[in-house]
Amino acid sequence: MWDLIRTYRKYDPATKSSLEVLFLYPGVKAIALHRIAHMFYRAGIPFIPRAISEWSRFLTGIDIHPGARIGKNLIIDHGMGVVIGETAEVGDHCLIFHGVTLGGVDFSPVKRHPTLGNHVVVGAGAKILGNITIGDHARIGANSVVIKSVPEHCTATGIPAKVVNSKGVVPGEELKHDQID
Amino acid sequence: MWDLIRTYRKYDPATKSSLEVLFLYPGVKAIALHRIAHMFYRAGIPFIPRAISEWSRFLTGIDIHPGARIGKNLIIDHGMGVVIGETAEVGDHCLIFHGVTLGGVDFSPVKRHPTLGNHVVVGAGAKILGNITIGDHARIGANSVVIKSVPEHCTATGIPAKVVNSKGVVPGEELKHDQID
Amino acid sequence: MWDLIRTYRKYDPATKSSLEVLFLYPGVKAIALHRIAHMFYRAGIPFIPRAISEWSRFLTGIDIHPGARIGKNLIIDHGMGVVIGETAEVGDHCLIFHGVTLGGVDFSPVKRHPTLGNHVVVGAGAKILGNITIGDHARIGANSVVIKSVPEHCTATGIPAKVVNSKGVVPGEELKHDQID
Question: Is there a contact between B127 and C180 (Cβ–Cβ < 8 Å)?
Fold first, then answer.
C-alpha cells in the first residue's frame, strides 16, 4: 500500500501529503478493498467477496469484480463509473481514468475480459471489450471503444478504436502525455 | 420481483444465490425503488417520487425519473451513471449497461425521451436521445450516440450511430452476443 | 444560491418547488459545496478543500476540484460522473450534463484544463481535454472528445470533435436545443 501511495504522490504533484492520498483518493480505497475481496474470492468463499466489492462501489464509484487480477501500482484517477470484469487482468504501473470499462462481449465461462500489459494508459470513458490484449506502454484515447488487441507502444482511438503508431497522429489530433486528468 | 431475480440468475451464471442478487445487484434495488416512486408519481403526489429516485441514485448510481415506464425483467448491469428520462419507455426483457442515457434533446412538454422495444440490448456508455424508437431485439454499441430510430433486429454503432443489418458487421468490428459485461 | 435555484426552475418546467430543487438536485449541492471548498482553497488551507470535494463527490457523483473557477448559474444536470479539473474555468449560464469531463492531457503546473465561455452547453459523456477554449453559446455533442478550441456559437461533435457552423448539421444529425435531458 505504501508503494501505491508513493506512486500517487509521484503521479500527482498537487498532492500535499500521504494522509491526503490515503483518505481522499477513491482509487486507493478501491484497490485496498479489492485486495481483500480477491483474497476471499481465491479462497472460494461465497457472498463475502461480492459484498465487499459492492460496498467499495458504493463508497468509490469503482466497480471491480473480486475475480479481477490487478498488478502493482495501478492508479485509478477520479474513478467514478469504472467497471473491471471478473476475468480481466491489469499489469503493473497502469493508469486508468474514470468511466473506463474492461468488459466482455459474451458469456463464455473462460476468459472473456481484456488483459492490459504494463504502463498502459486508458483515457476517460474508454470501453475495452472482450478477451483482447493491450500491449505494454499502449495508450487508449478517451471515449474509445476497443474490440481488437492493441500492440505495445501504440495509441488507439475512436469507435471502433483504430491503432496509430506511437509516433503517429490521428488526423486533426495529437495525443499527448496521457489523455485526461 | 422474484421473476426479476430469476432473470438475473439466468443472465449471469456466476450468481450463486437469489440472496446475492437481492442484496448485491444495484439494478435490482433501482427497479424496486422505481416501482414505488412510479406508483406515487401516477397518483400525482408531489416531492415523494423524486425524493425516492434521488435516494435510489445515491444508493445505486442509477437515475430513473419516477415518470419513466419500465417493462418486465429489465436488467441494468453495473448501472453506475445510467440516466432514464421522464417520458422514456422500456419494453420487456431488455438489458442496459452502465453509463447508458435514455435522454431528450428539447423541452417539449410531451414525449421527449426514447422508447425501447422488447429484448433490446444497450452497450455501456451509449446515449439514446429524443423521441425515437429502438425496435425489438435491436442492439446499440458501446459509447454510441443514437439520434434516429433503429429498426427491429438491427445493430447501431458510432457517433452518430449508423444502423447495420443484424447479420452485417461494421468494418473492422463484429458485434457479438451483447457488447459488454 | 437563490439565483441558481431560480435558474433550475426556469430550466426544468417539471420542477414543482424551490425546496425540491434545494434538496433533490445533486448539481445544486455540488455547486454549494464547491463554493465553500474553493474559498478554503484560495485561502491556501491544506486538506480541507479536497476533503469537502471528496465528500461532495460521494454525495452527488460530481467531482469538482476545489481550484476550479465556476461562474454564475451553472446547471449540472443528473451529474453522475462529471469531473472538473483544478485549472478549469466555466463562464456564466452554462449547462453541463452527466458524464462530462473538463480534463487535462499533461501535467504542466500552469493552466492545463479547458475554459468554457458563457451559455455553453455540453452533452452527456463529452470529454473536453487540455487548455482549450469553448466560445460563448457553443454546444458540444454527447460522447464527443474535444481537443481543439471551439469558436462561439458553433457546435462540435465526434471523436475527435469536429466543429460545424451553428446553422449547419452533421451528416445524418440535427443537433437541437441542448442535446440530452
Answer: yes
